[in-house]
Design a protein that fits this description.
It is a single chain. Strand 5 and strand 6 form a beta hairpin. The chain is built from seven helices and eight strands. 50% of the residues lie in helices and 14% in strands. It has a four-stranded mixed β-sheet. With 200 residues, the chain is α/β, with parallel strands linked by helices. The longest helix is centred in the middle third of the chain and has 23 residues.
Amino acid sequence: LDTSTVSLSDIIGNGKVYKVPSYQRDYSWKQDHWDDLWADILSILNGDSIHYMGSIVLQNKGEKRYSVIDGQQRLSTLTLIVLATIKTIQKLIDSNIDKDNNQERVSLLSKKFLGDKDPGSLTYSAKLELNENNNSFFQTHLMVFRQPLNEKTLIDSDKLLWQAYNFFYEKISDYFQNNKNGEDLANFLNKLVDEKMMII
């Protein structure tokens, strides 16, 4: 058993890929979990030097592939924060604000935190694969910023994924509402969430 304290990019950098095994429970975090995590992020934004998010347990499957034995709720929710931040930058692009630089930011952040894009299908070869109940919605909607046609028809855990994504999108949008600056949004993710939210 190898134990270390790492940042988000330490986990998902260098081409590593993570899969939540089929026997793991579905996504289950709710509003109180999201509120707690956002409060932790705000404490970092307000000057705290570092925040420990607890532990995750991974099984090395070889060739930079890992099974998520414990901690999938944290890893999934951090990925939703990445998606929400990128979506907020995309909104600046759609408003023609610093368009070229923000498009480059979206591309770099997506490659670093989410995965590589297939040039043919234009879909991501994602760094994170959820369990069999959640992965289809995660890949075909959240990873490509596609709204479900009818949220009411989603299974409960997919609803929670969608609600969590929207929760953090609204929080990030509100926090940066008077600051239409893609650089600050990118630094929020790349410097604060990534480097100061530590995981054991």
